[in-house]
Structures are given as structure tokens and as C-alpha cells.
Design a protein that fits this description.
The chain is mainly alpha-helical and 236 residues long. It has a domain of 120 residues: Cytochrome Bc1 Complex, Chain D, domain 2 (Orthogonal Bundle), CATH 1.10.760. The chain contains nine helices and two strands.
Length: 236
């Protein structure tokens, strides 16, 4: 009993001492000064404020979720629920008036045009050659004989551009075929703009002429070159 009492008294006397030591130990563990809480930390506070502001506005979806209809999206405004609307009757889209039927339709007096609607220049023919080699040569080949790579792989071949029927066909005929397609050939209206269609036709005419040209059709400078080459060949 005496031992228990003395131990109790001992613990009662030590508790204040232990408590004081713990408090002194905790007080020695002071945190480092926070620059945001002191005057010298003013730049840090400004930086933090700017960062929070940018983060706040960056989370807005106004530019991402724009007030517009996606293609074929349902509409609650129109009675038929279609957001895609038909063109208003009697109106013409800007830049789509197309009064020049010669240029846009390849027709004059409702007949296939026999003349080009623009001046033919070397640049136009070169443009036509480029477009022809891209879009036409896979079937027609680069000479227009109708033996392109697609045909060699089994696709039905087109007629040669050098047959009499196509050599005599008006340029408006070729424009119509490029625009609307013919036989197994589909329309190229989406791939080839109107001006490029005429450029291709100009190059077709150049191809046709190249296979049926006479010396009398050549420019004088070319004739002289051919004559000089012929003379050199005869002397060798």
C-alpha cells in the first residue's frame, strides 16, 4: 500500500514536468516563415492571385461550347426539329449568282459551247496539264489514249480522246462530262473547280492536236528547228 501511494504521488509530481517539457519541445518546432504572410512576400501574393485568376477563366467553356448547331443536330426552335435548313426560295448565296452560263454551264443558247469562255494562255494549258495528270490520267493515261493504270487493273476503259468523235466534239461537251459524269465516269464537280475544268479541256485540245498536228500548224521558230535538225540528219 505504501508503494502504491508513493508511486501515485511520484506520477502526480512528474506530470506537470512532463507536460512542460512537451510544450517546450513543440514550441521549438516553429514552421518556416511564409513569404505570403509577410510584407516581403508581396510579389508572391500577386503571382498567386494571377495564377488563380488565369485558372478560373481558363476553366470556362464559352469558346468550347459555342452557341451553334453541329451538323444535323436536332433543333428545338424549328417545328420540324431540323437544324439544317433549306435555301430560302428566291435567294442566291453570295458569290453564287452564276449568270455566265457559258463559263458555269458550258453552254451557249442552251447548246454545248464551241468556244472557251476565257483567253487561253500557256499558264492555263499548264494548269490543265497538272489537273489532267492528277484527276484524269488514272483512267485516260497521260496521253489520253484510255489505257491508264486503273484500266490496266481491270476497270472499264474510256474511249481514246483522239478518236474522231471526241476530236470533233465541242468543248462544252467535255465540260458537261466533267461536271455531271458519263457512263462509268462519275462527276468531278466536287474535286475540280469550274476554272480548272476549262483548263483541263484546253489541255485535252492540246493533246488531240499533238497527235494530229501538221507541220503547217507549227510556229515559224519550231519549223526552222525541225528543218535544221532534218538537214543535220541528212548530212550525217
Amino acid at each position: 500500500m505504501w508503494l502504491k501511494l508513493n508511486l501515485k504521488d511520484l506520477l502526480t509530481g512528474l506530470l506537470p514536468l512532463i507536460k512542460g517539457e512537451i510544450e517546450r519541445g513543440l514550441s521549438s518546432l516553429r514552421p518556416l516563415p511564409n513569404p505570403l504572410l509577410h510584407k516581403e512576400g508581396e510579389p508572391y501574393r500577386i503571382f498567386l492571385l494571377l495564377a488563380v485568376t488565369i485558372l478560373f477563366f481558363g476553366c470556362r467553356q464559352d469558346m468550347h461550347d459555342q452557341p451553334k448547331y453541329e451538323p444535323l443536330e436536332k433543333s428545338d426552335f424549328f417545328s420540324d426539329t431540323r437544324s439544317e435548313r433549306d435555301q430560302i426560295e428566291g435567294t442566291v448565296p453570295r458569290g453564287e449568282l452564276r449568270e455566265d452560263t457559258h463559263f458555269y454551264n458550258g453552254k451557249v443558247d442552251n447548246q454545248p459551247a464551241r468556244t472557251f469562255p476565257m483567253e487561253l494562255t500557256e499558264a492555263v494549258v499548264k494548269r490543265g496539264q497538272e489537273r489532267f495528270n492528277i484527276y484524269c490520267s488514272p483512267c485516260h493515261d497521260q496521253l489520253g489514249t484510255g489505257h491508264g493504270m486503273v484500266v490496266r487493273r481491270g476497270f472499264k476503259g474510256p474511249p481514246s480522246l483522239h478518236i474522231d468523235r471526241l476530236r470533233e466534239a465541242p468543248v462544252g461537251y467535255f465540260f458537261d462530262v466533267i461536271t455531271n459524269g458519263f457512263g462509268v465516269m462519275s462527276s468531278y464537280a466536287e474535286q475540280v473547280p469550274v476554272a480548272d475544268r476549262w483548263a483541263i479541256i484546253a489541255y485535252i485540245r492540246a493533246l488531240q492536236l499533238s497527235q494530229h498536228a501538221n507541220v503547217s500548224d507549227l510556229p515559224e521558230n519550231v519549223k526552222k528547228e525541225l528543218e535544221s535538225e532534218s538537214q543535220r540528219g541528212s548530212h550525217e
